[in-house]
Every structure is written in C-alpha cells, then in structure tokens.
Amino acid sequence: MISTKRKISVFLSTAFAVLLMFSCKDNFKEVQKSTFAEFTPSGEADSINIKYTDSGKIKSVLISSKMLDYASVEFPFTEFPKGVNVTLYDEHGKKTFVNSKYAVTFKNTDLIDLQGNVKITNETGQVFETEQLYFDQKNEWFYTEKRYKFTDPKGVSYGEGVDFSKDFKIINSQAVSGEIEKQ
Hints:
A hairpin with a 2-residue loop joins strand 1 (43-54) and strand 2 (57-70). The protein is an alpha+beta fold. The protein is built from one helix and eleven strands; from the N terminus they run αβββββββββββ. It has a six-stranded antiparallel barrel.
C-alpha cells in the first residue's frame, strides 16, 4: 500500500511537470515570435535592362519586368519573379537566348536558378527546353536533373539530367532518347 507521503510526492511531481509544460509552451510561442524575420527586399526595380561587359565587350544582356534585391539577408540573392530574357554573347559575337518565367541569382555562388518554361535558343537553330535549369556564371555552364527536350536541325532528343556549355558544343546527358540524323 502506498504511503500518504508517497502519494503527496507523486501528486506534487505531476503538478510540477504539468506546470512546467504549460510555461514552456508559452515561452516557445514567444521565442517563435522573436526569431521570425520577414523577407523584405532592400531594393526593387521595374523594367530593367542590364548589360554585363568585360574588357569593353558586351558579354550578356538581362531584361526583366521586375527585380527584387535581397542584399541584406544572411544569404543574399536577387529574384526575378516575372521572369527573365537573357542574351549571352560568345567571343565571336554569336548569341544564345535564355528565357524563363522565374529566376533567382545567389550572390555568393555565381549560380542562377531558372524556373518555369525555361527555353534556350541559339542562332544555329538549336532549342533546349525544361522546367528548371541552373547556370553557373563563372564556368558558363548549364545543368539540370529535370526532364528536357533538345531540338537540333539534325533531330530531337529527350532526356532527364544533362549539363552543357552555353554554346551547346559540349553536352553530357544522363538518360537520353530520340532520333538524331547521322553525319
């Protein structure tokens, strides 16, 4: 049989534990409120047309109807919520055109994340289409793990996962199918 002292001890322990749980729950809500930070852009622009140059030569032109700059957050980025149209120029002045419905650039990584009906075309008639594509600005290299369609004057191919140079001269496909004319 349980002694009266033991009953009181169990009762007080249980009451203390319940009290502690309620006080922690209230404190947790306060901590959540104090650590919540709203993302607000430090800069905003409409109808932008930016030209990137190197040694006096235009390397690329970026056009977008909306740009939001988040330079003051821990991992700074620039967002293009209404998409981008980019023209890339090679050393001979040949153009590659990149379009997407949404884009975000990460300032410390030189990566651009293109999303939504991403389409790349060039002057030779090649067309690359996917839903998401990354562009490594430093190495001028595209890559994706998503499904894609690549149209070339020689044929059409489909696949999932690919990386390639901005001029389509080097293409590394993971899984590909389609019909391409032999030379």
